[in-house]
Design a protein that fits this description.
Order of helices and strands: HHHHHHHHEEHHHHHEEHHHEEHHEE
Strand content: 5-15%
Helix content: 55-70%
Number of helices: 18
Low-confidence stretches: 1-23, 460-465, 470-479
Mean pLDDT: 83
Largest sheet: 2 strands, antiparallel
Distance between the termini: 47 Å
Strand order of the largest sheet: 1-2
Shape: globular
Radius of gyration: 24 Å
Structural class: mainly alpha
Length: about 475
């Protein structure tokens, strides 16, 4: 979800700073954008773990039960505790966002409250249900039968998916609004279900869902890759690496197809965004695929063109031209360079990660174990941060590319922001302190947990959870 949002990340580069200073824009527009960029850019990463980590916990826990595997059970229990920490700080940032939506953007939430109310209501309900089942799962170790206990993870996973879908549906609606009419300046004939199930919500959600699995999978696998680099090459680390890496591999290999499907028809829905993605200053038939480059005084510089490939990828055609910027009024064009570079950053990193996991599985099938190669483990350790950069860049491309509209073709961003003074900068400063403190706190807590686990501290024995054997210090299931 991003109300205009990650726009601000690029405005700091100077591309839209001049606009913010213009007398025609509200004084609070730039700090409001910065505030939402900070909040959503931070929250979206935490939300990825809430969406993807329960499925990984379920697979690991189920393996532990079916194979009587104490290592798998121990990993499932530890991941659940990590998930609880991330859920707690995500609850804080999510609560902040719920206030910011109404306070910073009354021009959106006022007129369109009836339109967006149903998705946000379902998202809130899903959040509370996820919290309930997370609590049951954490408390249930040693207190519930094994088969019943592991099933408590499924509602966690389902509610995480439902909540994420509802938020993505709102963003999809902002890119292609439907389910209402405007009569005499008033929003009427609202059809909330049309908003929730708008034409592109499922595809956009699939794109985000796969991105969440890439972030969670590569990040968790990277933790165990670092452990193996430090000499911890036991079954705990190899299994802890392999399960999330499988999830990340499937997501990385599937993501390019989801992204391509999402882009189909963009020339009709948001031609300005597509023109910025492709950095098409003039119409060409067929259009080239433009790698790199920036637009300077109406001229593209520093680019590498691959003839004809732009039409094939963007338009599914050998000859159809990509929409060009010279066909779009200047006041309806997004910040072109930011949109283009963010889009190519997302695609470039995604392609690199997909190629990397494909190479791993091809070589593994041929009997080559890259887990013995230090360069590969270092690469996996970097894959988590790279996937975060790709996700943030994708949201920048999506939101900045929609400008100057907060609701495409219906409501401009300048008309949605509240009538506030530049005093919002103080709020942004305070928020920056809070988010920095939460980040440091989360890192300190998680590192402390990891140190205690390495030192051998475990929970009390339970009917099927792992316990420490006094002789060999290996985890074995309690009988």
């Amino acid at each position: 979800m991003s109300i205009d949002v990650l726009t601000s990340l690029v405005q700091t580069a100077g591309e839209t700073t001049a606009r913010a200073a213009a007398a025609t824009e509200p004084a609070g527009l730039l700090p409001a954008r910065q505030q939402m960029a900070l909040s959503l850019g931070w929250h979206i990463i935490i939300a990825c773990f809430g969406v993807a980590l329960p499925a990984m916990i379920f697979v690991m826990h189920l393996r532990g039960i079916r194979r009587d595997d104490p290592v798998a059970l121990g990993l499932a229990q530890r991941w659940a505790k990590v998930s609880a920490v991330l859920f707690a700080i995500g609850a804080v940032s999510g609560t902040v966002l719920s206030f910011e939506m109404g306070v910073l953007w009354p021009g959106l939430m006022g007129p369109f409250g009836d339109v967006l109310g149903l998705p946000f209501a379902f998202e809130g309900l899903a959040f509370f249900l996820e919290a309930i089942f997370l609590g049951i799962y954490l408390y249930g170790w040693g207190r519930m039968p094994a088969k019943q206990h592991v099933m408590m993870v499924l509602p966690m996973a389902l509610t995480g998916i439902v909540g994420a879908y509802c938020v993505i549906a709102v963003n999809s609606w902002m890119n292609d609004p439907t389910g209402f009419r405007i009569v005499g300046g008033e929003v009427t004939d609202v059809q909330p279900w049309s908003v929730l199930f708008n034409a592109h919500a499922f595809v956009q959600f699939a794109h985000m869902w796969l991105g969440a699995y890439m972030i969670a999978g590569f990040t968790v696998a990277g933790v165990y890759a670092v452990g193996m680099l430090r000499g911890r090459r036991d079954a705990h680390h190899r299994l802890g690496f392999m399960v999330p890496f499988v999830f990340a591999s499937v997501a990385a290999l599937t993501q390019p197809f989801a992204g391509h499907v999402l882009g189909l028809g963009l020339d009709e829905r948001q031609p300005a965004k597509l023109a910025a993605f492709e950095l098409a200053e003039t119409q060409e038939s067929p259009s080239p695929l433009r790698l790199g480059g920036v637009l300077v005084d109406g001229e593209v510089k520093g680019n590498i063109d691959i003839p004809g490939l732009g039409s094939l990828i963007a338009m599914n055609s050998l000859t159809d031209p990509v929409p060009s910027l010279d066909q779009i009024p200047a006041d309806e064009q997004p910040p072109v360079n930011t949109t283009h570079l963010a889009f190519q950053t997302m695609v470039g990193i995604g392609t690199l990660l997909a190629a990397g996991v494909a190479g791993f599985w091809v070589l593994r099938r041929r009997g080559i174990d890259l887990l013995e190669k230090r360069w590969f483990l270092r690469s996996v350790a970097l894959a988590g941060p790279l996937s975060v950069i790709a996700l943030e860049a994708g949201w920048v491309a999506t939101e900045v590319g929609r400008q100057p509209w907060i609701v495409q073709g219906v409501l401009r961003t300048t008309d949605a922001v509240g009538d506030y003074s530049s005093g919002l900068w103080w709020l942004l400063g305070a928020s920056s302190v809070v988010y920095t403190a939460m980040t440091i706190g989360a890192v300190v807590v998680l590192r402390s947990m990891a140190r205690r686990w390495r030192a051998g501290e475990t929970d009390l024995p339970s009917p099927y959870a792992p316990e420490r054997d006094a002789d060999d210090r290996e985890e074995v299931p309690a009988r």
